[in-house]
Predict the structure of ABC-type Na+ efflux pump permease subunit.
Amino acid sequence: MRAVFSHHLFHLFIKIVGALLVALSVTMFILVLLTGQSEAYKEIYKFLGSLAEFSAIAGGSLWLIRHGFIQLKKRNITWQHHVKEWFLFFRKYHTLFGWITFLLVMSHGTYFLFSGFDRIGRVYSGIGAFVSLILVVAFGYVLQWFGKGKNGKSYKKMHQWVALLFGISLVIHLLM
């Protein structure tokens, strides 16, 4: 497993896929703004929402994998090193997953905000999830730039609590 996660081609692949997803989301965002809503794009925007969901899960997995690794390390379980590789991978790309999620959600939400008023509960839950995602991004940005030193733990805790709020609002949105 170490060979896969430490291979430079794997990291290049992750970065290229991330860049392509960002380009796709920005392109689709501009397309919906220029052309307006169209039924032809509906499946693409649903797909963007699914990709955003997977990216959010990948970004949120950092916390779970970190705690799993800590517990395995305390108990000296043999496969703790595999979990450590997963943790290091998710820690390295956590910010990338966050920005991909934000941009995909922005393009997905823009389309359905303009065209999805037939299911108003879905629109409102999507707005709530998006607002909580904006808070996650804002605290993550503040944490990245100002999170060193004494304030680091408080910014990190706020980022985690708001991420939990986003996770709950995302589940509500998916269940609507």
Q: What stands out?
A: The mean pLDDT is 85. The two ends are 39 Å apart (CA to CA).
